[in-house]
UniProtKB/TrEMBL annotation, chain A:
InterPro entries: C/VIF1 (IPR034087), Invertase/methylesterase_inhib (IPR035513), PCW_Enzyme_Inhibitor (IPR052421), Pectinesterase_inhib_dom (IPR006501). Residues 1-16 form the signal peptide. It comes from Durio zibethinus. Belongs to the PMEI family. This is Cell wall / vacuolar inhibitor of fructosidase 1-like. The keyword Cell wall biogenesis/degradation does not apply.
Automatic annotation (TrEMBL), chain B:
Residues 21-115 form the Beta-fructofuranosidase N-terminal domain. It is found in: Vacuole lumen. This is beta-fructofuranosidase. The lineage of its organism: Eukaryota, Viridiplantae, Streptophyta, Embryophyta, Tracheophyta. The gene is LOC111315328. Pathway: Glycan biosynthesis; sucrose metabolism.
């Protein structure tokens, strides 16, 4: 590894001062432009399709991750709601409202983003990813006290934000 | 200190209101009830006080309503559950178009009453679901036709097909069956935007973009199945589609929205299609004799570096001397040509006026510093994918524009629909300035005018609000003129500070000579209000610049709606009075300054200034100048937009 870097320093002296080019493959370069680098790296690298993927494919992989996380969250919400009478009314209200928001993410936002990425009408992908982030945040805000969904809302929010950032890269390229 | 009698209105601050008091006399029984509820309120507030600082907020809230002087909204600071970090940059930037609040405030608990109020009475919208770009507008055999991008399945974009409606007068629309659906390989992934061309023999052809099964953007030809059907219900797609595919060097996803064609001096048809090369927006240009075979010209109609993808390009002539529109093929002396583009990167529509050089199919802007994409916008609010057509019936050029929502997608899903079209506007070259186009609602809208309320020479002192006695204020056509106190104009000291509606403090930010205008969709206590106003800024050399703004910052108690301030500079010539026109139609406000030189469209979603509680006021929040306003306010009827009557066979 060391000799490799020395080799690069010799061959591309200018590039030595630009670590992104030295270290970056597309995934790393892309994730550096998102606010949640680690989450971005992990989400993309854990999907085998990210190998040799272009930016558009990376965006789609993030959206697939968004769908999975949102579905998991909705499943948890449904489970919590099954407690029925054991739930206090404020909690039940918040959970029901969250269920609606997650339905919007899964049934409206994700299809919108997917179709927009596929057909190249990227502004609608941007719209959908931004909205998914807002819905996850709005769900979290529904809980007057402690939220049972904080971690999952955060993940969905952050994954949406990363997806939105990647779409922005596509739009600006 | 909590107000123990919540039934007394908060007084309007800063100046008396000469038109009449707002508090009505109360009967004794109501006084008893007031005391009871007052005590109850005290009890509840004491409970809240424990472990909460909400008493301070309630006090501020009381001050906030009815006071124009309060600056930024003083919402209680809520705990942020997630660290958003640099994410703010991401959502703020795209807030500009889809205009979302950043999501750190709670979603508003919209109820059905509030949501159903949002539907408009006289703006075009389908019965439900999502709409975007206007498509193929035309006049044929006595009917105006309107087509549009439509999602039959959801209140978000997707599964796009062509909706269709007809009208005799551009106002009263009747919905017809879908004109085209995604039933061919060459439009399987979307029947996208297109334009109509009327041929020499009066027949119609439509060119539209299809997103193929492989998601390649191609151009397709379609035409009415039966030209003798005035309703043009059925459409046929040319079997040999697509007629155009992305040329070499153009990305498969950067080739869409063909325009109406115009004739060349050789008798061929010429059409332009927007695209981009790297970050330069371009308009490709093609000639054709039959709309089936095309030759791409070597050059481009035009290109502007740094503007990104050009969507929905429009190209049309305007007369420099006549007050009528021109057929798209007209050229010659006294004619200028307009290039208009929709910028994908920022979702705004821009136009520029220039000269068309027919020989090589290029166009040069009159003023390159305000070239298309970097100069004047059609509309400084929400207005995109606009398209004009030549209305041969009334010899005018008419503009349509897509008005999206600026609330949350969850609210759109809950209410079951999203998006409107603007009221169609006539387009004319502004002979007085020579630099702008004038947009004005088509005159047929006046047929909706019901009761007229006139207010003449109303003096509005600096720092005052004048309620206007208009019975119903959710559907209005307002025409107003303002004269500003000349002495104050001369007396005011100039400064170097540049003004911008967007970065200003809105209607609450007081200058010597503004802001002044109207408060629409305002409740009685001004807790919610949308100011539409002028702001005059005096430069250090004594020159006056007038700005026209829409301030949404206090338009709604809900926090999950857009709260930006829209607007721009408006040219005002010497000796012109300041004039504006406002169409209020539930959740849309279209406002026009100086006869349509500067236009702003806003979407507002009040929670309490709805139905009978919506009012309209004059206001003047300047510190020095008084203004005198004369207004006509018409209450507007509904256009009763509905399905074409079923009993009549197609």
């Amino acid at each position: 590894m060391k000799s490799f870097i020395i080799f690069l320093f010799l061959v591309f002296p200018v590039e030595a001062f630009r670590p992104t080019l030295l270290l970056g493959n597309l995934i790393e370069r892309t994730c550096k432009q998102t606010p949640f680098y680690d989450l971005c790296i992990w989400s993309l690298k854990s999907n085998p399709e990210s190998c040799n993927a272009d930016v558009k494919k990376l965006a789609q992989i993030m959206v697939d991750s968004l769908k999975t996380k949102a579905t998991d969250t909705l499943d948890l919400i449904d489970e919590l709601l099954e407690d029925g009478l054991a739930l206090d009314p404020a909690m039940r209200r918040a959970l029901t409202s969250c269920a609606e928001r997650y339905n919007v993410i899964i049934r409206a936002d994700v299809p919108e983003i997917t179709e927009a990425l596929k057909t190249g009408n990227y502004k609608f992908a941007e719209k959908g990813t931004n909205d998914a982030a807002i819905e996850a945040n709005s769900c979290e805000m529904e809980f007057p006290g402690k939220s049972p969904l904080t971690d999952m809302n955060k993940v969905v929010h952050d994954v949406s934000v990363v997806a939105a950032s990647i779409v922005k890269i596509i739009l600006n390229s | 200190m909590v107000d123990t009698n919540p039934f007394l209105q908060a007084s309007v601050s800063d100046g008396s209101d000469p038109i009449g008091p707002q508090v009505t006399r109360r009967k004794p029984i109501k006084e008893q009830l007031s005391i009871f509820f007052g005590l109850l309120a005290v009890g509840l507030c004491v409970a809240f006080l424990i472990g909460n600082n909400i008493s301070d907020n309630a006090h501020e809230h009381e001050n906030e309503c009815g006071s124009l002087a309060s600056l930024n909204s003083m919402k209680p600071e809520l705990l942020r559950p997630v660290s958003r970090g640099p994410a703010a940059g991401v959502s703020e930037k795209s807030n500009r178009f889809f205009a979302k609040v950043d999501g750190t405030f709670p979603a508003y608990p919209w109820n059905n009453s509030m949501l159903s109020w949002q539907r408009t009475a006289f703006h075009f919208q389908p019965e439900k679901n999502w709409m975007n770009d206007p498509n193929g507008p035309l006049f044929y055999k006595g009917w105006y036709h309107f087509f549009y991008q439509y999602n039959p399945n959801a209140a978000v974009w997707g599964d796009i097909v062509w909706g269709h409606a007809v009208s005799k007068d551009l106002i009263h629309w009747l919905h017809l069956p879908l004109a085209m659906v995604a039933d061919q390989w060459y439009d399987k992934n979307g029947v996208w935007t297109g334009s109509a061309t009327i041929l020499h023999d009066g027949k119609i052809i439509m060119l539209y973009t299809g997103s193929t099964a492989e998601a390649v953007q191609v151009q397709n030809l379609a035409y009415p199945a039966d030209h003798s059907d005035p309703l043009l219900i059925h459409w046929v797609k040319y079997p040999g589609n697509p007629v155009l595919v992305p040329p070499p060097g153009i990305d498969n996803k950067d080739f869409r929205d063909p325009t109406t064609a115009w004739l060349t001096s050789e008798g061929k048809w010429r059409v332009t299609i927007g695209s981009k090369i790297n970050k330069t927006g371009i308009a490709l240009i093609y000639d054709t004799k039959d709309f089936i075979n095309y030759e791409m010209l070597d050059g481009l109609l035009h290109a502007v570096p740094g503007t990104g993808m050009w969507e929905c390009v429009d190209f049309f002539p305007v007369s420099e001397t006549e007050e009528n529109g021109l057929d798209t093929s007209i050229n010659g002396p006294g004619v200028k040509h307009v290039v208009k583009v929709s910028l994908d990167d920022e979702r705004h529509d821009y136009y520029a006026i220039g000269t068309y050089l027919e020989k090589n199919g290029t166009w040069i802007p009159d003023q390159p510093e305000i070239d298309v994409g970097i100069g004047i916008r059609y509309d400084y609010g929400i207005f995109y994918a606009a398209k004009t057509f030549y209305d041969q019936n009334k010899k005018r050029r008419v503009l349509w524009g897509w008005i999206g929502e600026s609330d949350s997608e969850a609210a759109d899903t809950q209410k079951g629909w999203a998006s409107l079209q603007s009221i169609p506007r006539t387009i004319l070259f502004d002979q007085k300035t020579g630099t702008n186009l004038l947009q004005w609602p088509v005159e047929e809208i006046e047929s909706l005018r019901l009761k007229r309320n006139e207010f003449n020479q109303v003096k509005v002192q600096a720092g005052s609000v004048v309620p206007l006695n208009v019975a119903s204020a959710t559907q209005l056509d307002i025409i107003a003129e303002f004269e500003i106190d000349k002495e104050a104009l001369e007396r005011a000291t100039g400064s170097n500070v540049t003004f911008s509606c967007r970065t200003s403090g809105g209607a609450a930010e007081r200058g010597a000579l503004g802001p002044f205008g109207l408060l629409v969709l305002a409740d009685e206590r001004l807790c919610e209000r949308t100011p539409v106003y002028f702001y005059i800024a005096k430069g250090s050399h004594g020159n006056l610049n007038t700005f026209f703004c829409n301030d949404q910052s206090r338009s709604s108690a809900a926090s999950d709606v857009d709260k930006q301030i829209y607007g721009n500079f408006v040219p005002v010539l010497k000796d012109e009075t300041l004039s504006l026109r406002i169409l209020v139609d539930h959740s849309i406000i279209e406002s026009f300054a100086q006869g349509g030189r500067t236009v702003i469209t806003s979407r507002v979603y009040p929670t309490r200034a709805i139905y009978g509680a919506a009012k309209v006021f004059l206001f003047n929040n300047a510190t020095e100048a008084s203004v005198t306003a004369s207004l006509k306010i018409w209450e507007m009827n509904s256009a009763f937009i509905r399905s074409y009557p079923r009993h009549q066979k197609f």
